[in-house]
Structures are given as C-alpha cells and as structure tokens.
Design brief:
alpha/beta, Phosphorylase Kinase, domain 1, binds iron/sulfur cluster
Length: 702
C-alpha cells in the first residue's frame, strides 16, 4: 500500500502524518485513505488528535468548488483568469495600486503565500496584503520584535516536556492544540513534580487538569505578569547574567513597581494567596515555560500582554536554555510561514521591514522597480477601506472573513459594495464566496505540494497523495497566471513549487552574509528531489546552523545592533469594551475540540459533530437564573454591533458575569449563529490584532 508522509492542515502544532492508500477523487466517492500520526516527525512523535484522524472524511467532493466561475456562472480557466487580471489592471490604471488588496490565510502553503506577497508588494506595488494570521498571532509577532529585534520564537516543543513549571495563559491547550497537550500530560505523568499552571477566566478542560488554576478577571493578564516582574525584582530573583543581556530595566522596573501582589490580586480578581502561589512557583530556581495563545494575542493591548510575559522570562533568565522560554503558539498550520514570506501588511518580505535598504534590496532580488514603499492595511482596517471605497478590488485566498473577522456585518457590507471580489477556495458555498465576482477552485490538502512552518519554527513538507478533483489548481499557479496576464511573465515563470521555495529561501539570505536571524538560504540549494524528500527542520538553516536550530539566543545575543534584548515597560490597561446595564455580560470566544475555524471542512464530518453539534453559550447558573434561561433553552445574545442565537449550557465552569461562545458556527450551519457579528472591531494599536475576548453582551431567552 502506498504511504505518504505529510503534515496536518489544521492547528499550528503541525503534526506529521502518514497517509496510506490513495485514489483519485471520483464524484460521490471518498478516497480510501487511512491517516495516522507519523512517529518520525518531531512535532508529534506519532501522536494525532481526533481532527487529524478524521481527515480522510474531509476528502470527499461534498461542497467542493470544482470549476472557475464568474458571477456564479461556470466558465473556463482562460475566461476566469483573463477577466480577473483585466479587472485588476483596469482598477490599478484608474485608481492606483493601493486600490487593490489581497486577504490571505494561514492555511496557504509557504509557496502560495510567497507568490501572493511577491505579486502584491513586488509588482502591483502596494502593501495591501494581509491575512487571517492577523487574528491569530500578530500581537506575539510585534512583541517578539520589540523584545528580541526579530520575530522569533526562541524555544521548541521538547522544552515543554523538559520544563518543571509550565504556565498556560489564554490557551485551552487540551482542545486547541491537543497533541501538545498529550505531550505535556505524558511529561507530567513521567515526572509528577512537574507543575501546570493555567490562567484563564473560565474553567476550561485545560484548567480542570492543571495543578493551579487562576481564574483571573478577563483582560487582566498584563497586571499579573507585570506584578511578577515586580516580584522578581523586589524579592531578589533577578538573574544577574540576563540583567547584563538586556536594556530597559530601569523603566520596566518603574512601570512594574506599583503592581504589588496585593494590587495584582485586587485587579485580577484573585486572592493574595493565589498570586503568591503563582509567583513562588515561578521563582523557584527551576525551568519555566510560558505558553500562550489567543487569550493573550486577541486583545486591544495584546502586544503589551505578550511583552509582559516576555519581560518576566528575561528578568528571571528563564529563556534560551532547555525547558525555558516564552512560547506563543500559533493557531494555524502555516501562520509562521506567512510571517516568513511577509504575508502581513506591515512586513515587506522574509522578515524584512519597509526600510529604504530592504525595499531596494528586495526590489533588486525580484527584478522590480515597483516594490511597495510602505505598509498596507491590516485586516480590520483593510475591510473598512473596502467599505469606504478606497479599495476597489479584493482577492481573498483560502479563508472566510465574512465569518471569522470581528463585526461581520461590516465585512458583509464591504464585500457587497466592492467593485471586484475574487475568491480562491476549495469550498463552493462559504459565506464569503457568496459575494464573489470571480471564484477560483483551489487544490486542497493532499492534492498539492509545498511546505508549512509550525509554532516551533519547524518547516515540514505537505505532500500530494490524491488527484485534484475537477479543475482545481494550486494557489501559487493561480497567482502566477494572473501575474503573467498583468505583464510580469518573467518574475512568475515557475513550473513547480520547488522553484518557488528555492527563490524564497534564497531571498532570506540575499546580501545578508548570515547577519539576519531568519535565514534559510542553505535550503535554496536543494535539488527538486532533495526538496521532495525534505525532513522537518527548524530555522535558521544557514552556514551557522546547517542542520537547523532548535533553540535561539543561547549565546545571549539578540537581533538588535547592540546584541541585547529589550525589556519593554508595560502599563496594564483595561479592555476597550465596558459592560453596562444593557450589556452586563462579557462574551469570550474560543475553539472547541473537534471543529476547525468556520467548519467548512470539519462541519461536514458527522463524527466530529458528536462532541458538540450546535452553537451554544456557556453561562453561569446565577446569570442564567437572573435572565430566566434554562438548560438547552434557545438564547439570543445581543451586543452593540449584532446578535446571534445559541443554546444555553449552564455551568459553574463559567464565572458570574461572563459567557463563552465557540467561534466556529455561521449561517452556513445554523440560523443566525455567528459570534463575529457581535464583536466590535477594537484592535491593538501596535499589532492591529482585534479584541475577540471581551465583548459586552446581554443574554435573553427566546
Ligand atoms: Fe492536526 Fe493539530 Fe490535531 Fe496535530 S494537534 S493532528 S496538527 S489538529
């Protein structure tokens, strides 16, 4: 039986998979494949979760987009490509390059992402390409850059197992990254002294399993970690070596000084004993990891929250050695790959900013004198610019922003009035696709070739094992075809994704002489056969680290000119939204164990609906009683921007004054069930990441 080693297309854990058996997609038939964890892949060592093991059930043709369409009429590829390229060219000629935008996805492969970024920033000449990764980890990106001088996750999954104390903050790891949770749970079973501390307003599955659960007031995370910095300093727990490796200590200590344990306890809704218990566990001279996810990043002060966490690791010296470090977990399979190619609107390419030197250098590498000179719109701003009419054409690739962005009513208005909406997807009838003027059928998981990078900087191959159905094509091919029709034949003259990967890898080291951290230029020399056989490897991959680098900054040298890390003074701020007598509850959103994003794949698998099969809200018994809500009663949640319907789950795991709603449902699966409609588009001023964890709402029985 044929066996293909590939990578899971869901969460940022990036598990290696072994897929055995394959067959062509035939209408009405599910390819006969079996999916197992790959025990040779360092990310999962053979483990797999329920979503990964159900991947075979997502390979059928139900709901697949199989042919190009213009205005929902089937057309040939030639017609669709000619039409889209002409529309883009006409709009650029009439309004300029900034009237065009791309909205990409952490689901794209690195080669697809590179092609999209090159076309927009290199040849159309605008910075207007952003991505759903903006909603995922852009606060962590900004914080790493502020602290280390480079967007670089310093640690790896093995460190989680080596730690003595693992702090999980804003992360329901057991559901959102199940295989990492399995690894952590196994490590604790082997070393019962290991302590897991979970910081989360609600008692999630992860918190219920933790040794210490701190149910903090929503949005108070910065205060808890800034208080920790103050505790480290006042209790004499600073690490002397690391003090010499950082700058900004005086200002950071001053900002932290007011945050005594008493003040932290009051601000965070904890007892002083709880705060002290956390600080003392952290301060023992052992190995500490902090893992965080959307509960930190999706905040109007997300970047500061991330820096508060990183500050604590720099002050305590819990960094750059085995079992230590501040670790932002990415949500998506290739959020990291998007960061690498410049898929965020504020990056140029290959982790380079829009500096005059980088613009000139990248332009020379690409052979273009049209390279964008300034950042473009970030996700939320981008769709606001569409609604204002500043952006006339948008190309949405592999994502469903009409469900996943905040204030989805605004997104729908923007798409409805946009002159030209192009959508590339594998699914025919998403909420977003309904607005499309042009629909391109993309190839899906198992049908295309390329690479992805997981949360620990590990580049892995996704490999093809099934024939693409209908007329589906790879995203990079679609982008290159449009580019060629716009007159950029030479720069997009690729015939295989290996050529794109080589070009991308070469750009990371172009004229840098090994000075930049994100450098995988050694991989640019891979032959096609070597690329096809590429084993998982962690960047950088250059002359210093020819076999990759599992742990960064071990020499204590950071990416700033003076080589030192930066402590960033953090002044904790409350969330932007406020509750009132009209909206007395705080709505929090998150993932559930068995669904992925807007359910366009997992929502069609019956087995994955056994766990949770309908939109619901978790609400405390006291709040339910006050509102007259009973178990399983249909509830209307209303915010200042919209409303949704869901079933009540009454539980004391949910604190008084708060409701929790899964992020996944939309009208595609249940009437009026979209939490994004309720979320105001407040966002972090530094990262642009929206605040999805603090929406004032009211709950009423229907
Ligand atoms: Fe896929 Fe994430 Fe599950 Fe691994 S943990 S199998 S990457 S969904």
């Amino acid at each position: 039986m044929n066996e293909t080693r590939t990578t899971c297309p869901y969460c940022g854990t990036g598990c290696g998979l072994r897929v055995s058996g394959a067959s062509a997609n035939v209408a009405g038939q599910i390819p006969a494949i079996k999916v197992q964890g790959d025990n040779s892949h360092p990310a999962n060592l053979g483990r797999i979760c329920v979503k990964g093991s159900a991947l075979d059930k997502t390979m059928g043709l139900q709901g697949r987009l199989l042919a190009p369409h213009i205005k929902h009429q089937r057309v040939s590829w030639e017609q669709a490509l000619d039409h889209a390229a002409q529309r883009l060219a006409d709009i650029i000629q009439q309004y300029g390059p900034d009237a065009i935008a791309f909205y990409a996805s952490g689901q794209l492969l690195t080669e697809d992402y590179y092609a999209a970024n090159k076309l927009m920033k290199g040849f159309i000449g605008s910075g207007n390409i952003d991505t759903n990764s903006r909603l995922c980890m852009s606060s962590a990106v900004a914080a790493y850059k502020r602290a280390f001088g480079e967007d670089a996750v310093p640690c790896n999954y093995e460190d989680i197992e080596l730690a003595d104390v693992v702090v999980l903050v804003g992360s329901n790891l057991a559901w959102a990254h199940p295989v990492l949770w399995q690894r952590l749970a196994a490590a604790r079973a082997a070393r019962p002294d290991m302590q897991i501390i979970a910081i989360d307003p609600r008692r999630s599955t992860t918190c219920a399993e933790a040794d210490l659960h701190l149910a903090i007031t929503p949005g108070s995370d910065s205060a808890l970690f800034t208080g920790l910095v103050n505790w480290l300093i006042t209790e004499g727990k600073e690490d002397a070596l690391w003090r010499s490796r950082t700058v900004g200590r005086t200002e950071t200590a001053q900002a932290a000084a007011p945050w005594t344990a008493d003040k932290v306890a009051e601000y965070c809704g904890l007892s002083r004993n709880q705060v002290e218990a956390f600080y003392q566990l952290y301060c023992k001279p052992r190995r500490v990891m902090t893992l965080w996810c959307m509960g930190i990043n999706q905040s109007a002060t997300g970047t500061d929250k991330c820096n508060a966490i990183i500050n604590a690791h720099l002050v305590s010296g819990q960094i750059a050695s085995p079992g230590c470090g501040p670790f932002s977990l990415t949500g998506q399979p290739n959020a990291m790959g998007g960061r690498e190619v410049g898929g965020l609107a504020n990056q140029l390419a290959a982790h380079m900013d829009f500096t005059p030197e980088a613009i000139e250098r990248v332009g020379r590498f690409w052979g273009s004198n049209r390279t964008a000179h300034k950042p473009g719109y970030k996700a939320v701003e981008l769709f606001q610019a569409v609604e204002r009419g500043d952006i006339k054409a948008i190309w949405i690739m592999g994502t469903n922003p009409a469900v996943s962005l905040p204030d989805t009513n605004q997104v729908a208005r923007a798409l409805a009035m946009c002159e030209c909406v192009i959508v590339s997807d594998i699914t025919a009838h998403t909420t977003t696709a309904a607005f499309a003027d042009v629909l391109f059928p993309a190839q899906g998981w198992g049908e295309k070739e390329g690479t992805v990078t997981n949360s620990e900087r590990r580049i892995s191959r996704q490999r093809r094992f099934a024939e693409p159905p209908g007329e589906a094509r790879p995203d990079w091919w679609i982008i290159a075809q449009i580019a060629r029709r716009m007159g950029y034949e030479k720069a997009f003259d690729w015939s295989h994704p290996h050529e794109i990967f080589s070009e991308h890898a070469a750009l990371t080291g172009f004229e840098n002489q090994g000075e930049r951290l994100f450098d995988i230029s050694r991989l640019s020399r891979l032959t096609r056969t070597e690329w096809e056989q590429l084993q998982p490897i962690q960047w950088p991959v250059n002359s210093h680290y020819p076999a990759g680098c599992p742990r960064l900054f071990q020499d204590g040298v950071f990416a700033f000119p003076d080589g030192k890390a930066r402590l960033v003074p953090v002044h904790p701020q409350p969330p932007r939204g406020t509750t009132s007598k009209y909206y007395p509850l705080v709505m929090n959103t998150g993932r559930i164990r068995d669904q992925w994003h807007t359910m366009t794949r997992t929502g069609m698998v019956e087995g994955l609906l056994q766990h949770r099969n309908k939109p619901y809200c978790e609400i405390n018994p006291a709040d339910a009683s006050q509102a007259g809500i009973t178990e399983n009663r249909l509830v209307r949640l209303q915010s200042a921007t919209g409303w949704m319907l869901c079933r009540a789950v009454i539980t004391d795991a949910q604190p008084v004054g708060q409701v929790f709603v899964p992020m996944h449902w939309s009208s595609q699966f249940a009437l009026q069930s979209q939490p994004g409609a309720l979320i105001t588009a407040h966002r972090c001023e530094i990262s642009g990441q929206p605040e999805s964890k603090f929406t004032p709402v009211r709950a009423q029985p229907v």
